[in-house]
Automatic annotation (TrEMBL):
Name recorded for this polypeptide: Claudin 10d
Organism classification: Eukaryota, Metazoa, Chordata, Craniata, Vertebrata
Coiled coil: none
TM region(s), chain numbering: 7-25, 82-104, 125-142, 162-186
Family annotation (PANTHER family): CLAUDIN (PTHR12002)
Amino acid sequence: MEYRMVIMYVEIGCFVTSLCGWILVCSTLPTEYWTFSEVSSLVLTTANYYSNLWRDCISDTTGVSDCKDYPSMLALPVHMHALRALAVSAVITGFFGSVLTLVGMKCTKIGGTEITNARVTFSGGITYLVSGFCGMITYSWWANRVITQFVDPNFKSHKFELGAAVFIGWGGSILLISGGTVLTYFSGKEGLPKSLSKGPRRPASYAAVRTRQTYMRPPSSRVTLVPPLYYSDGRSQITRGAGRTTPIENRDTFV
């Protein structure tokens, strides 16, 4: 099987995985079962309390249920605003991640060249990762507050437990992170430029052609003087070190 076909199947699998995770995250936003609590009374009725980021609800065994939105947005604590922003960010970034991945995949042939498609797919994988981390932070923060209040003996208000929506959100976030990671790795290997070699590059140099003159030593222009030579008739002659000297027949004449 060719490498391109393998990458194409990997992209399809990552896209389906991330899309399923995004759908799971989206399904938790309108669901009220983020937290729940059951209260029994002496009568044969049981009240169930459950809530999410947007409203509080109550139902009983007679089938009557009622939901009430939070009365004031500005009166909510800071963590509720942060959780809402993270949840909406997870949905929006997951949508754009699906669009980018669908455009850049090799099987759709919507984009331009192979490099362009790989870069678009890489952008989609990064967007999926952002969506998954936003969702994971949202559900983990919510679960941490619920568990902290439940195990705190000094917390006198009504205590809740984790609902099914939190676990569904965790599963969807894990799928988003897993699909985005694999998608980013394979598309980044193809679309991003290769890193340069370590260390500074040496400038281009030109090789010199060795000729016969390369090995010839240039003549020296330095003049070496030697002591003058004296002859028997009183004449003297200064010679160069490189020249040929006249032999002296009788050295005792000037010693």
